Each structure stands twice: as structure tokens, then as C-alpha cells.
Here is the input.
Amino acid sequence: MSNAAVTPDQLGPSGGDRARAFGSAALAQLSTLGPVIALVIASGFFTFESPRFLTGGNLSLIVQQVMVVGTLAVGQTLIILTAGIDLSCGAVMALGSIVMAKMAVIVGLNPFLAIALGLAVCAAFGAINGGLVTMIRLPAFIVTLGTLNVAFALTHIYSKDQTIAKLPAAMTFFGNTFTIGQTDITYGSILMLVLFALTWFVLRQTAAGRHVYALGNNPEAARLTGIKTARLLLLVYTVAGLIYGIAALLIIGRTGVGDPNAGATDNLDSITAVVLGGTSLFGGRGSIVGTLLGALVIGVIRNGLQLIGVASIYQVLITGILVILAVAADQLARRRQG
Amino acid sequence: MLIATCLRVVESSRRANAPAGLGPPPGVRGIAVAFAALLLVAACGGQGASSSSSASQVQVGLITKTDTNPFFVKMKEGATKEAAAKGAKLQTGAGKFDGDNQTQVTAIENMVAGGVKGILITPNDTKAIIPTIDKARKKGVLVIALDTATDPQSAVDALFATDNMKAGELIGKYAKAVEGDKPVKIAMLDGTTGVTVTLQRHNGFLAGFGTNNSDPRIVCTADTSGDQAKGQTGMENCLTKAPDLNLVYTINEPAALGANTALKSANKQSNVLMTSVDGGCTGVQAVKDGKIAATSQQYPLKMAIEGVDAVVDYAKNNKKVSGYVDTGVTLITDKPQPGVDSKDTAFGLANCWG
Here is the structure.
């Protein structure tokens, strides 16, 4: 850190390069280690403030509470890695959950068919986002702002603003729990973790995954190396849509109903998790593991503050400060590299 | 002193790690720093443990619809004071916006994990919250709905609330007494579709006025979410639709004040009889100033105080309250009408909230 204060001019060219390389490595490290540090500090603090924090049941509860935003953040990470952004994810999820609930309860379809329809609707919205971004080359921010409103309106029109209750048991499966030792774990938490593991594998170990990073780093260079960038982008948005469909299934499991008001702030929450996880909003850099940590940081702070009896608004305050720190670290690292 | 020591340790550990290329590889070093930090927090944070609540203290949870509405702010104040007076500890939570069920679900779970004996909640979604309330009650937590009933009402142990039907009826009767048999054109500025309070006040008003939803004299209906800006928009649209409307029902006082702004810019304040529900201090002042003719005052403080008392009673004597507890409603106006019981704004201001 002390090296950062020494300007390249004072050291001469070679010294400057070294200082710059060190500074950027340290900052790049900070953006990957940041979420770990935040998580460790927060967990340590709450462990000593409340005897109820570090128990299996409570830790399982935290994972359960982040499973919806965490799952949305998986899709969001894929899109942000391509230097895009998705404001529509929460609204698309809400629409998917209402389609699932209404098809099963009001129309009386087989619950699995209803779930498939909900997943299809979400994937279709992802494809529409991707199509508009790649074919008409509209900025992702504007496209998804549009589809956010479309999905929000369709949700309220289709549900007639009514919460749909009495869902078939198969549909709320992911809200059920199994017990290990004394600890209740929801199946939904496991599904989210599996999704993270799968995405980690695809991003790290497959060509398609590496192409996503290449595309986000420099789309022109990626195209010149023979990556079909338009097709890849369309695929990323569609897969993200499908993942929002899985989040829809999770939120149904979590609350046990189809709620048209669900997910209203989840778009920003998912972006927050991604950014806290050290993924760069400018694309091409970041990790899915970071996103999981980012989501957990939010969950731990919310849960911990509640346990020690601090008003929930302080969670928002702390999260805001952490976001600024995370983005600042990323920007500084980038500027030094550039 | 302790903090200073902690900071110094952080600083020196940072300096120790500073020289590049000498220590272990960067990733390992980073993790080492992280764990050093954890140990440090453990050492420094351990001091704080003694200040947290004693195990025997009764914990009460209060979850409101939002953090911002003065009605809930007052409720929270009342609950905080009562909890302190009874030696209990209050935990609070709130939805981020009107209708936000998810955040309330999370708050219930965290409070149950935190060991509360009872939870007082104003549900944002009267149906969607029920599975979570069921889980809390199964763990022996007493759940009381404040202000808004769950659907079905039996999903909670007890309901402490205003009789919203009666609140509507009072202003309906008042409007009837003022207008008599003169021709009226009514605008209904409702809250949120599908919410029971909206429906009860709406129907109560019409019943008090001696009519029902099919009355052709109802010239306009708008949803305001109980929000001042939306109340203004709703009234503007209603005035466009029916410029000669002369009787306005509003779900609450913020909506009424928004509607009043719209009437003022259309220069139609004096033609219109404005009625409302709530009894907040701003609202009662508006009655005094003549912006609102009459309002039904409710008592959130009472809901909160009786709610906290019920939880403490359950914790100490294992006695559970049940059923519906009416926390009362009073018609406030400075132009009383014969045959309609009311109190003046002096009484209203003495008992207002917010």
C-alpha cells in the first residue's frame, strides 16, 4: 500500500513499471479478496456479538435467505462479464413465478408442466434481451430497462394483482428442508450452490466460458480470433433468463405462494452481489465464486444486525459503502493496467 | 484506548506485509491478512459481548409495512418505549416498500433465529406472509397482526387493529349528514387493490353514506397506495373526468392532502367535501385548516403498546392472547353534525400520531 504513494516519475522508468505492476496486482488482489475479507470480518464481529450467530441453523438460514438473489446474481454475473447489465432480472423472475403458480393453481396444469412453462417464459425474455442487444445493438441498460417494465406490467396484469396461494406440493419442493445433525437445510440452498458450481465449471473449464471473458475484455479482438460474438451474447442472455426461471421456482418455494410483488428490488440487489464479489462492471474480469461471497456478505450483515438488534436500515448503509469500495478498487486496478 | 490498540496492530501487520516479492506469494499473503484480521476482530470484538442483552430479557419483534410512513414510525416509538418500560428488548424490521413481502419474510426468520418470544407485524401481503407466520408459530413464537388482518385472520394468534369498516362508516355518516339529499358526485380515492383495509374503509364509507358500489353518483375511483403524490395524480384525473365532483373519500390523509393540492390548482377546494381516515398530526392539522372536513382517527400507539404487553405477558405467564382486539376509532371534525358523534381538532391534536 505504501508503494502507491510513490509516483513513477520519482523512481524512473523501470522503477515506475515495477511500482505500477505491484500496485495493480495489489488492487486486483483486493477486488478478489475484498469479499472474503468483508465476509470474515462481518462473521467474526457477529460471532462475538451474538451467541446465536455462529450456529448451523443460523448459517443455513442465511444461505436460504440469499438463495433467490444469489441465483439471480449467477445470471447477472454472466451478463456483466460481457460488459452488459440486466435490470429486468427481478421482474422476469416475478413473471415466471406467477406463470408457474397460475398455470398450476388456476388453469390446473400438471405442476411440472407449469414449471416448464415458467422457465420457458423467463428464457424467452432473456432471448429478447439478448436479441435486442446483439441485433439492433441497443445498450443493455436501455433494453433491460424496457423489458423490466414490460415484465412488471405483464406480471400485474396476468395476476390481477392477486397473490396465488395453495400451490401443489411439487412446486414448493425447494422450500422444504432436510436435516443434517441439528441443522435444517433447504433444498433450494443446495440448488443455488449446485448452480454456482456448474457455472464456475463452465466459466473456468470450457471454451465457451473463456470466450465469455474474451468477449467482455475486448469484443473486437474476440471477434477477430474467430469467436462468434453475436451468437455468444445471445446465448449468455438466454441462459441468464433460464437461470431467472430457476430463481422463480426458488422464490415460490421460499414464500410458498405466487406473489406479483416479488423481486421488485432484486435487480439492484443482484447487481450489488456481483459488484461486491469483485466482478468488474466494465466486463471481462471477475469470478462467480466472488458473486456467491458477495451475496453471502449481504445476507450475513442483514441477519447479524437483526440478531444484535440493530435497525435493518444500517444494512443498507453498510452495503452502500462496501459497493463504493468494491467499484473503486476495480476502477483503480483498471486505470493502472491501462 | 482498545480501538487505538487494535488500529495500531492492523497498521503494523499491514506494514509487515508491504515489501513486494519477499514474503509468500500474493494470494497466500492476502488470505493470511484476512485471517489476521479475523483474529483481531475476535480479540477486539470480544469486548463488546458483555454489552449485549442478557439472556433473561424478553425479546419482542416489530415488523412494519415500511420504515417511512409516520403511522409506523409512531407505532415503533410506542413499542420501543413500552418495551423499555417492561424491561423487554425490541427488535424491529420493515418492508422496503408498500407490498414488499420478501423483506418481511426475512425479518421474521431472523427474529425467530434471534430468539424473540413474540412478533408484532403489519403484513404487506395478507396471504403471502402466512407460510412464514406458520413456521414461526410452530416454534412457539406468539404472532400478533397489528393494523392489518392476515387472510385468513386465524393465521395469527391475535389481531390488534382499528375497526376499518367503522372508520369508513363514521366519515360516510358525516358526509350524509352534511350533504343530506343534495345531489352529490363522489370520487373514491382508494389505497391498493386487493388489500383488505382498502376494501373495508371503502365499503364502510359507502354503507355509512347509505349506498353501495353500484351507485351512479360514484363518478370516479382511483388507487393511490395511500401515497400523497399518487393521491394528487388520482384527483387530477378524477377532476378531468368529472369536473363537478363534490364529495371525496380518501383512504388516508396523505392521499387527501395530495388530492387537496390538485383541487387547489383547479381552484375547486371550496366546492368539495373532503373526508379521510387516519388521525395523524398532519391530517388533524389539515382538518383544523379546513383542507379536510372530517377524518376518522385511529390509534397506532395503542396497538403497539398492547402488542408489546401481550408478548411480555406470554413470556412471563405463558398466557396467549387470541381473537380480535378493537383499538378504537374517533371522528374528528370542527364542524360537528347533529346525530353524528365527533370530537374537535383540539382532542384530535392531543391524541394524534406522527
